[in-house]
Design a protein that fits this description.
CATH superfamily: Type I PLP-dependent aspartate aminotransferase-like (Major domain)
Distance between the termini: 25 Å
Shape: globular
Helix content: 25-40%
Structural class: alpha/beta
Radius of gyration: 20 Å
CATH topology: Aspartate Aminotransferase, domain 2
CATH architecture: 3-Layer(aba) Sandwich
Strand order of the largest sheet: 1-9-8-5-4-2-3
Number of domains: 1
Number of strands: 14
Number of helices: 14
Amino acid sequence: MSLRRQLPAYSPLPLDAVIAGLKATVFGARGARQRLTERLEDRFHPREVWLTDSGTSALTLALLAAARRRPGRPVALPGYGCYDLATAADGADVGVILYDLDPSTLGPDWDSFQDVLNQDPAALVIVHLYGIPVDLDTAVAKARAAGVLLVEDAAQAAGMTWKGTPAGAVGSFGVLSFGRGKGVTGGRGGALLVNDPEANCALGDLAGQIGPPRRGASELLPLVAQWMLARPEVYALPASLPFLGLGDTPYFPVRPRRQASDSSCAVLDRTWGYAGSEVETRQRNAARLLEAVRARKQFREVVGAKGGEASYLRLPLLAPPDVAAFAGRRTRALGVMPGYPTSLADLEGFARRLREPERLVPGARTLARQLGTLPTHSRLTETDLKALEWWLTRPH
């Protein structure tokens, strides 16, 4: 059996970054931590940067701040997205109301968005899924008119911009993630960007609820595995091991929040410079694959909001409702994957958080049935791209 299987997503991780992570577990990473903070400040221009152990922890802190600002009010989440949205709501112990998405844009259904704002939530979270831009001008205007904190989840949007401003810098809070498949990686880690005075005031003394940084020794084995196995030539081996959960979409339990580890800061210090060229490669590959999509017109293209430049962490497409296009071993070998299999409205175990479990989110449920993604990253060879073009144009 061939061990070659394409990765659905990829973040550059050179050997010297792994070595830097190893050294940081022994000697610490004060210099790398400071440089990372300065780089985030230089790129995003926030009022504050909080380095966290994950994007989920960063989002949890934003929701905690919003809940303190408006006690008893729910937070608004999109009806479709990564299940870490649900984990963050669990961590903040807040009620949730869902707004629907427009499957053709992956942005809000604006009628549903406004209806949720009319219910006076403590905060509303918008998400740039797969690096596809949401209309931030409209979202910000509506949230401000309602007096609601807007949390911009840019965990999947490394390199995406809105009118020249990087994703994560527009909302009251911005959430970043540096996990293994997020475009720029520290192995683990995340950041909360505090972008306006109201958000800064809402945070108050929440820094006391974040544990101190660890050296990150427990992150070394996954980091080395990421470096060794994140290659198409061998990826079929880890992908075939069920206990690794690669390609799964688990609903994680709440974990203690911590500051970013020394190891993750040291790794990011070495991988940061690769992010720009990786985004350019993803955009170039996505443009090529979209030509095949438009030529055959078998799949529906997702079109982000005008004013944004997509970074295409993956290339999202909608299959016809009666076609199971994103399943099968051959499809997975190409790096083609289905999206999240259920909406948040239908996520088992999450209904207890929903203030209106009967709320209709038809767009979110359409995405759960019909959305899939293609790889766009720099591990794709010319042969891989031709195989994906063939897959896009063959009958399904």
